[in-house]
Structure formats: structure tokens, C-alpha cells
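dumping this here before i forget
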Amino acid sequence: MGIKDTLKKLDRRLFDGLRRQYIDFLKSEVQGLDSLLDVGCGSDSPVKYFSDRIGRCVGVDAFQPSIDSSSTKRIHGEYRLLDVLEIGKAFPDRSFDGVVALDLIEHLPKPEGLALIAMMERIARKKVIVFTPNGFLEQREHYGNKYQVHQSGWTTEEMRSLGYRVTGVNGWKPLRGESANIKWRPGWLWMRISLLSQPFTRTHPRSAFAILCIKDLI
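structure:
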């Protein structure tokens, strides 16, 4: 084995677990749920890593191309083309074990985001999961999707005041920018520094780039 292969193997050993941190957190939180509503599922939801383990998995999005792309990948078993603020009318109370909104509420004005969270909590029987940047992060329209623009920011303190436990994700906040891309150069180095900072920011979410917020309803 050459030096290059040895370094790649060492890199995988040191960092692969840290690269999977967010997905591993999600898998742990949805374990035991038999049904899941993915609100604002987009075209490539992280739910793809475990949706095959959930009996009923429904994706909701307001952008038809995202629904089409996700459906082609068979991420969810069912889809609804729907404004996310209409989920309270579309789904009965307590009709899913879990409801998730991953990278969604920051795309809504604050009052609408709070209304959405309230609807999610009515629809869920067991758990609500929200993933969002830590504080306001500017983001523009992408791929012709006007819904990609960020309109609000959410903090650890705010989510805790709503009854959520909060975990920090994606490492130290100053290292990342729009779309969670590393801001500093060389990117390969600062990405690894970001990964190494994750064990600290996990338990100190005020310093994290993003926050994973969980509310247990039972």
C-alpha cells in the first residue's frame, strides 16, 4: 500500500464517523417510529438514509421538480404537492408517529415558522424534529426554486423555550456559510477542522453552525 492509500485510509478512520454525525443523530431519533411525515422534503432529503425502515413515510413539498426528483430516488413511499403551511388541513391530528422539518423553517417568515411548528406538534404522536441553521443565514434562490430563500433565523434559546432539546451540528459556526459550505481556504483543511470541532459544538449548540431540535411528545 502506497503513502497516498495509507493517508486516505487514515483520513477515513479519523473523519468518516464525524462526517456521518448528522445522519447518525437522525437515525437515532427516528428509531422505533412506524410512520414519518417529512415536511418540505425537497429533492434529496436525509430521510433517504433510513426511510426504508419506516412503515409509512410521506414527503411534502411545494415545488414540483423537487417532488419529481425525490420520487425518482424513491426516498418516500408517498408524496403530496402541498404548501407546507397547509399540512394542518391535509393531515389529521396525531396521524404520524414523527414529523420532521429538515432545513425548512428558515425559509419562512418567523410567524409562519412558528405556525408550522405548532401544526407539526399537532400532527405528531411521538416526536417532532426540526433542523435549521443556528441564527439567520443569508441564502439566495437556487435552481429556480424561490422557496430556497432564507427569511428567518432560529436560535438555541428560542427552540429550548418552545420545549425542544437542542444538539449542535456541522461544527463551529464561523467556518461555514451559505449551503453549509466551508468559507475558508484551503477547504480540505478547514473542513477537517470543522469536523474535529463537532464533539464540542454537539453539547454547546450556541457555537454550532446548525441545530437539531427534538421535542418528545410522550
